[in-house]
Amino acid sequence: MATQKEATGALDTIPRLLARNAAAYGQRPAYREKEFGIWQCWSWAEAEEEIRALALGFLVLGVDEGDYIAVIGRNRPALYWSMVAAQMVGAIPVPLYQDAVAEEMAYVLEHCGARFVVCGDQEQVDKVIEVQDRVHCIEHVMYQDKRGMRKYDHTHLNWLHDIQVEGRAAQTRLAHELEARLAKQAYDDTCVMLYTSGTTGKPKGVVLSNRNIIETSRASSEFDDLSEKDSVLAYLPMAWVGDFIFSIGQAYWTGFCVNCPESPETMMTDLREIGPTYFFAPPRIFETMLTSVMIRMEDAGALKKRMFDHFMEHARRVGPAILDGKPVSGTDRLKYRLGDLLVYGPLKNTLGLTNIRVGYTAGEAIGPEIFDFYRSLGINLKQLYGQTEASVFITQQPDGEVRADTVGVPSPGVEVKIDDTGEVYYRSPGTFVEYYKNAESTAKTKDPEGWVATGDAGFFEEGTGHLRIIDRAKDVGKMADGSLFAPKYVENKLKFYPNILEAVVFGADREMCTAFINIDLTAVGNWAERNNIAYASYQELAGHPKVLEMIQSHVEETNKSVAEDPMLSGCQVHRFLVLHKELDADDGELTRTRKVRRNIIAEKFNDLVEALYDGSDSVYTETEVTYEDGRKGKIKATLKISDAAVVPVKPQKVAAE
């Protein structure tokens, strides 16, 4: 593995890391992609040749140094190659969320001034064409998948394969220009521009340098002993900073293999086939996996269900201790080995997690019960805390110091401090350069000494030095009686139940907490089928009396758990309703990274919030929704409001500032 000295010398750009990998790991797999049910593989030497041909093709097309090249599509080797090829010619890649609607794409494309756009398929090309009458900077659109593209006007439309063919043909003519551009590139040049998810407003373009990406990739790879022998499944949005660090930064630093699934629908199957050693997933993915396990066990025979419950109870008790190398009795170890043979091993194999050496979750807090479930199986799942502006890593959990209620210690090279209001600040080699065309926001977020305000409230534990994140600083508040209000804490506990997909808790400056609940259609639908409950739509199932009864039991169990924390016991949910629709990014209720846009939801469903607090038993509402084809419509519903039992406690008030 490369040393820090090399990183700050010869290995100071992604293209130079690519050249190193082609020379050092030439025949090792660099990329795999499943297409038409078959895995295809490219070695590092082959990947370098593909990327170089693409870079020369970009020169033929007229890409200048400093140009912005937007990349839109699902995870595919050719799209990763496009980003690195852009860097080779001195351009700046800007990956976009592939599920964004045309209007969202228009803002980013215009804001960065993209002259060139690389699309995965016809769907993405259509979105770009739709906005070209408003976004006048776009000169050429390229696409990888040519299906459906035959009758389009190809005057400014190019098949990516043809770009490579032209690049190879121009090797003799343009090789000198390419080498000259590569030679100019430096450690502090821009590596990539990634847009924030826009939780509270318009997305901001986060400018990250080669130094930011490479120093962060080096430090985080060394922290977990990642090497060229590891492999990762690349399935998260390419526009997300985590995917860029894992699938380009760390992959190019260590030389490990990046595997691209055939489609989002086949992701779990492809995960099982690849069996990666390094895996990252946001809490929602782990929640979905756990839901699928619980559904299968509900459908299992009585003997199999009893065996599962028996050994899982043992695993929860001793599994994490065994994983961390702590003392466990010989009898318990023997029983755990038997459980591994009969339950844990087959379960890990079904989930595709058998080979996981290092697993991470981040993006939002994961429910402690969900986290402990995976660790009890012997999966080395850890938490990290990060941001786009930090090139991901702010804190990480070292092996042997993993707990559900902390996010670990500062990552190597990262400084973290807590200000007087409880907000978390950091600075590191990964700290972003600036927000593109937004000096005001840059100054508000990063001070002259390089300290960045995270917007999160937290504190360091005494003794362990681990950071605990309470919630978003703007979301943490007080209730009317002065007790602490931290909605995310309660929401994560609610989402532990497989039947609850999403929850939004209200209560700031109020007498009590209330909540919106989204059911998980897969889990609740399976339950309804087993109980002979017929339904025709999500809305009908969400309003079924037996479903409401089941959700009420989950809310009341959550209240008992919340009551055990004296600081947050005032956050018990007194009243709730089950929403008639799923919260959706297309409707602006979630970000593209599936984070709740709390203020927008509170404003959009203000009539429902007020009904929760005015004593109503039900409320009629009409809601505008966006269909998959972009059309708008309205759904009408009368929602039942339920009261939940709470545990009488005397919550602690927040000390006066």
Largest sheet: 5 strands, parallel
**Highest-level CATH class of the largest domain:** Alpha Beta
Bin the helical content: 25-40%
- Termini Cα gap: 50 Å
Write out the strand line-up for the largest beta sheet, numbering strands in chain order: 4-3-5-6-7
Structure write-up:
With 657 residues, this protein is an alpha/beta fold. It folds into 3 domains: 4-280, ANL, N-terminal domain (Rossmann fold), CATH 3.40.50.12780; 381-473, Luciferase, Domain 3 (Luciferase, domain 3), CATH 2.30.38; 477-643, ANL, C-terminal domain (GMP Synthetase, Chain A, domain 3). It has 22 helices and 28 strands. A hairpin with a 4-residue loop joins strand 17 and strand 18 (423-427). It is globular and about 80 Å long. The two termini are 50 Å apart.
Essential attributes:
globular; 657 residues; Rossmann fold; alpha/beta; disordered N terminus; five-stranded mixed beta sheet; 28 strands; 22 helices; Luciferase, domain 3; five-stranded parallel beta sheet; 3 domains
Can you give me a brief rundown of this structure?
The chain is α/β, with parallel strands linked by helices and 657 residues long.
Task: Give me the secondary-structure topology.
Blueprint: H1 4-7, H2 14-24, E1 29-35, E2 38-43, H3 44-61, E3 68-72, H4 77-88, E4 92-96, H5 102-112, E5 116-119, H6 122-131, E6 140-143, E7 157-159, H7 160-169, H8 171-184, E8 190-195, E9 205-209, H9 210-223, E10 231-233, H10 241-254, E11 257-260, H11 267-274, E12 278-280, H12 283-299, H13 302-323, H14 330-351, E13 358-361, H15 368-376, E14 381-387, E15 392-396, E16 409-410, E17 415-418, E18 423-427, E19 434-435, H16 439-445, E20 452-460, E21 467-472, E22 477-478, E23 484-485, H17 487-494, E24 500-506, E25 513-519, H18 521-530, H19 538-542, H20 545-563, E26 573-578, H21 598-604, H22 606-613, E27 618-626, E28 632-643
Parallel strand pairs: 1-11, 3-4, 3-5, 5-6, 6-7, 10-11, 12-13, 13-14, 25-26
Antiparallel strand pairs: 1-2, 8-9, 9-19, 14-15, 15-16, 17-18, 18-20, 20-21, 22-23, 24-25, 26-28, 27-28
Helix pairs in contact: 2-3, 2-10, 3-4, 3-7, 3-8, 5-6, 9-10, 12-18, 13-14, 13-15
